[in-house]
Amino acid sequence: MHAATLMIIILCAGLASQWLAWQIRLPAIVVLIASGLLLGPVSGIIELGLSQTELTELIGLGVAIILFEGGMDLKLGEIRRVGHGVGRLTILGPPLAWLFGALAAHYIVGLSWPVAWVLGAILVVTGPTVILPLLRQARLNKESASLLKWEGIVNDPLGVLLAVLTFQYFTNAGSGWQQTVAGLGMAILAAFVLGGLGGWITGWLYRRGSLPAHLKPPALMVLVLAAYWVSNLVQHEAGLLTVTVMGLVIGNMKLVERQSLRHFKENLTIVLLAVLFIVIPSQLKVEQLELLDWRVAAFVLTVLLLVRPLAIYLATLGAPMRGKDKLLLAWIAPRGIVAAATAGVFGPALVAAGYPDAAALLPIVFLIIIVTVLAHGLTLGPLARKMSLAAEEENGLLIVGASPWTQALAQALKNLDVDVVVVDGSYQRLKPIRMAGIKVYYGEILSEHAEHELEDEHLSFLLCATDNPYYNALACKAQGHEFGHHRTFQLAPHREAGHEQKRLTLQQRGYFAFEPPMDFYTLQQRLRDGWTVQSSRLSKDFDLDRLKSKLGEPGDDWVLLGGLSPQGKLQIYSSEQGFKPTTGWTLLYYSPEIEEGA
């Protein structure tokens, strides 16, 4: 098969698998692995024709970019809140998990000690490519999410480095502890110089405008790959640690281009995951799958139910962490692409070095990936909600801008049992809202403090309602990635320019809220004129047409704000993004006081 045809098949299968996983609400990694097995050992469609060395090198480049992107997501500001836990999980956790995993692999599966130690090191990683999507789906609070995120991203390169040093110790003639410790030192030095210092120099050059804006994202990708390659020349497989450190440094330098760089890497990571999780399982042979037996099943259960809980218990013993977080960490540890890639590298290498039982390494790791992703992916949300570490549901409104009108809206939503949080940088404006028992956040919505401290996982919509429409637009674009751009709304400007070309385009702002688009001053004036935020439930006898005839002309006599579906889900109304309420909906509207039933 031609290389171009093969690449198109892999890309289409990878992206189609991720779409299917989204449709059926399964972790994407499970569907990707199934597709890889179907296209590889089952049907034989994917035959790359590459040597093991060439395939390993290409996989390494993809994993390097994925770990760099994960490193950019690590915010040092989170250390103030979870530093005590992160230190335990990344310093004490890996050696404990390595030890217990190796013991289980040797005594339960019967693997030789060299293979068991390498497998134990591989299973140290918990996989940011799996953890991060699960965290978004589960809506964990920021402290619990930070612990899982930091552990997943930091432990990935550490686990790979442990596997490399263990492999070298058992396969290099004359290797000893001194050489192993020297290798660890060289890896740390390469990460500090190429990752830390190199990342800082890159950010410094970007700040000075040394590159044009359109070249910065692709240039950064090339620099990441170069740092990875040079680090591997210094110390085998030290590159993954280097790129993680590099991502951490650049991600915390407060670069103006950080968001564009991050979005570029996120899009690239999605494609790379699609390719890698199709390619790696496709290289499995039927004979390797036949090595899986009841002992392997017992080992997987031991890893889930004994190795992980014991390692977390000992690593966090005496740490000032919430007991709920310890319990959650003891269970949640899905493995991802780095574990699969590392097993794909060292399995064949150990067989070639004279350890035939290493042929079972890759199928064992894939089984653990599938089981942990399914078990942890399907239970993270319910378990976290049961322990009050996650929002029960995503249904609520974050309002930016405290004013008498937003207080009226928040109070009406609260009366309908909808979660509301009002954000403002003025304590005086927030005071009456807080005194009314409505949740508030005192601070700037665009600040780093809000990014770390504002608990908004349970909120589904954003409404920017200050008196400055251009600030509203800025806040909508900044928060659109988190809420979804289709769920970010703002009040319209007081007087729009007459020509369409002079207006803020939809790409530069949020959707204008309500119908017709209402501005801050009109809403405030009508509040002073006696208008209130009211609600009515639609029924067969009192439908939308009946409500309209009761209230009068939309815009002049009343304004539709939104509604609650029969299931209680909030929806904000916009002339640019409407919805069609039917029987059972509770409509929220702004109008003068009218007697109910009139």
Task: Please explain how this structure is put together.
- There is one protein chain.
- The protein starts with a helix and ends in a 6-residue tail after the last strand.
- By secondary structure, it is an alpha/beta fold.
- The longest helix has 31 residues, at 79-109.
- The chain has helices at 3-24, 28-42, 52-72, 79-109, 113-122, 128-138, 142-171, 177-207, 216-234, 239-251, 258-282, 286-289, 294-315, 323-331, 337-352, 361-386, 404-415, 427-435, 448-453, 469-483, 520-528, 544-551; strands at 396-400, 419-424, 439-442, 461-464, 488-490, 511-512, 531-537, 559-564, 570-572, 586-592.
- It contains 22 helices and 10 strands.
- A 6-stranded parallel beta sheet has the order 3-2-1-4-5-6, with helices on both faces. Strands 7-10-8-9 form a 4-stranded antiparallel beta sheet.
- The chain has 2 domains: 61-386, Na+/H+ antiporter like fold, CATH 1.20.1530.20; 396-592, 3-Layer(aba) Sandwich (Rossmann fold), CATH 3.40.50.
Task: Provide tags for this entry.
single chain, about 600 residues, alpha/beta, Na+/H+ antiporter like fold, Rossmann fold, 2 domains, 4-stranded antiparallel beta sheet, 10 strands
